[in-house]
User: Fold these one by one.
Assistant:
Number 1:
Amino acid sequence: MGRRLLCLVLATAVWLPLVHVLFRPRSADSASLVAYERAQLDDPARRDAELGRIRASNPEWDLMARSFYVWSLAELASANVGERRRALDAMDVVIDDTRRLERERGYTYFLLPYGQDGAYVVQPQASQFLDGELALMLAVRATLERRDADLAELRSRVKRMTARMEKSPVLSAESYPNECWTFCNTVALAAIRLHDRLTGDDHSGLSRRWVETARKKLVHPETGLLVSSYTVDGRTLDGPEGSTIWLSAHMLRLVDDTFATEQFALAKRALVHRAFGFAWAGEWPTHAPGTRDVDSGPVIPIIDASPSSSGFAILAARSFGDAELSLELGRTLALAGFPVRDAAGLHYAASNPVGDAVLLYASVVKP
Amino acid sequence: MKVRRLLYRALGIAVLFVLAHALGWRAYLCVLSGAAPASAHPTFALVAGCAYLLLYFGVVLVAPVLVLAAGFETAWRHVRPGYGVKKAP
């Protein structure tokens, strides 16, 4: 019996370090991911069905899938001039449809139901989630091709966002009643920064004060990581979370690269797990355990693997040029993301349209 | 545990995985992302998705270990011919 057990232990010791060789990220994946997203866009019935499916789980994902797709197209178009016209046309379809939905259904259309309950502390009511993501969509589009109508709308949204942020002691606007999210406010700050580049306006003072305030009031004391959500006056609601911090660090690169890099390094230390050439990310640091919700998604116990946090970690690793972590996370995606390659392109069976859009963005984002 | 039993177990995992794959349970892996399945009762999708996940990792991680262990055990018997042979009382 002892010898047989020894054989099993030996076999495990031989096999586990070799598994990663079978799961390598492919360089052509971004093109296949784009092809899949385009196939969805070209087939409105299919896309509506997919978006309807994710809306049943979380209406926020509808907007996020759109945002990450548009941001991805902007990255692609900026890297490939020949792709620009096609990308711009695709971006316009998504942006126009999103604006139409906001106009017809109101800003709560993309919010969870509790977004309609209760009054926002800062008036007039608006959601930083929608304003920030749509503003960044408009900003990246305008970076590629300036249109007066887009710039006017961008300016209007930036004016509303900054006015609401200035009314908060922690310079943050609500996405939900008395709920400010780091995710949304860092997206908004990135949009404001791009807006300033496009228009010549200057909101650098707000950005600088936001970072100073965040360092003092919005970081978790034990980990140094930005908390995920807080009230308008800065009381923490949710501590640091992987589904927030990776994207926030990426967005903060446009605002304060030093702070962004610090947050990325801290998130790596607190959330990343590595074994046998693979890496994955947890949702909560050990010192700041949280509870599962619609943002965290399922978290695989024992190994503390969060698909949501791991997907965003790929984006951050590529954004910050961490090739080793990017490779290890990419292997895990190839192992546990269950890639589906068909005539339409590439998507992941273990993911959903917003996850696919995040992974697309991760595959094209530049360090 | 006989060598053949190790191989049967590896084969069993592989057959179950192929069966789950043929039944289309891969589509239910979307539950891992918190998304509702396109067409199935959520509880069934959760069970089928988790079963597929376990079988997949069984094929990728466990079955090769069983096959390798069977190989090591066979090699051991060649090196030590008396090993594993029951002696008469």
Note: Chain B has a mean pLDDT of 86.
Number 2:
Amino acid sequence: MDQRTIPRGVKLIFELTNRCNFSCVHCIRSEDGPYHDLPMTIVNKVLTEAQAYQPVGLVAFTGGEPTLHPQFAEIVELVTTHGYRFTFVTNGWNFPQTFTKIQAWKNSIESVSFSLDGSSEATHDTLRRQPGSFRRLMQAISLCHVQGVPVQLNMVVTRANRDELEAMAILAGRLGCAALGYGHCQPTPDALAADLVLNARERREVETNIAALQRMLTMPIVLAGDHYTSARFSQCPQLQMQEFNIDYRGYLTACCTLSNYRGGTTDTDVLADLHSVSVVEAHRRLITKIAQLNLEKLERLTTNAPTETEQFLCTHCLLHYQKVPQLAHILEPPARRSIAPTEEASHARA
Amino acid sequence: MLAPETVLHPHPSLVFTQLDDTEAVLLHLDTKRYYTLNETGTRIWELLQQSRSAQEIALALQDNYALTDEEALPLLLAFVDELQQEGLVQQSSAP
């Protein structure tokens, strides 16, 4: 059986550091310090305590730029010693050096997720504010291709690159990538100010186009995280407790999207400090929080019909955790934000 | 036939990645095709990046790999022929 098909068990996500060598306007992470690297003792504690009561299917490293963690190779070794496969996101800038350090465990790499925000050099380098980043990423992908390491490309869909969805899929296919992920640009203050965030209607057009690509191509294409749903209590992997996020300070947080959210209220999403709290107790707090979230959502639904913005999966949590104030209409065109839902919008929700 | 003074340049759409001391990979951004280079191919590519003429590259190969003139030039010509067929290099004459 191909070990890469459907990991059985939960996904443990470790934000290894909040440092990054890029400064992308559309990034959801705050660039404000202080900077921390997740202690390796916390990684070991979580792996050990989690596997004692539930199967772990996959370990994922995020950041910041996770490969900047000074013990990245040691952490990779630790994870593989526990018998797990792993994946990590990266901008690919230092990938040859990174790969040299972890090459011994390359057979345990589920995939490397490269952040590529444009099918063209110009689009990617502009969005990433890093000249040469596209070509460095292509070098990284070439290296993975030769070494037999599966690659996933991840594209944050913004107003600046939304016309490149199809070109990105073709690029990923021709480069021999194992998968392609798209994700909506989140409404951080910086991304909104740069006019990169699509409104609800534009987001739904993007989702329609992605669905068309999914039908046309055999390569797996996913729309990660936030997306439109007509269901009132749709549950993401975090709310289903299929994914657990441990931040760079060693805290269990509600979700990887909310963690260290740029421009948002800090720490409202922190559930437990794993330096002093057991994994089981942290899990207990998560269950309580999820129940609270669903009860609060029930109250909102019984007092107000959801706006179009609120029918995107992440909106309720962004509101609940005070990551973006006044979010309820933020994805709607300006003319509509201050008035009641139009007939057309109401029809769309029916 | 490649003249000795010919200078070949890597196509601007090529991305070169060194894998280790002996291997490298090229990715053509226009065609999205990968090409792996062995040790000799990697050495020739490095010299092409330095805008060396065919004659200079052949001499360098003789030095690096203890080849004779009769061995180095055919080796280079065969390799360059493949590169040209794949559109990986562009040709110009040395000033």
Note: The CA atoms of residues 271 and 286 of chain A lie 7 Å apart.
